[in-house]
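Sharing a chain and its predicted structure for anyone who wants a worked example. Both blocks are below, sequence first, tokens second.
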Amino acid sequence: MFYIGCAGLAVFAAVWPAFLKTAPMLVTGCRFLAVTGLYCPACGGTRALNALLHGHVIASLKLNPAVVYGAAIFVWFMLSQTAERLSRHKLKIGMRYRNLYVYVGLAVLMGQWLVKNIIKIAAAM
């Protein structure tokens, strides 16, 4: 997983600037929002990631807190695995996979989805 993370980080660093330039042309609107009138669980994810990359953590949390959670888990995983590898496994601090990380991420994602839609429905009344 560590090497996949390193490769993914390299690809992300190469692709993200180009994606931001072409994103306005690629956006066709959220199908979930168009059909149901409600936000989808991923609404705000791209804007949240962009805000986080520009150092605006609070703005990112407001847009989609699951992005900040995922970034925090990824950063801790990469740092702890790097430290363990550099110490030749003498420091046993490398983060290991736990289902709990996935469940917490899903809870954050669904929680923000519910809150956003409750606010949207309340504002429409």
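Comments welcome. The chain is about 75% helix and 0% strand.
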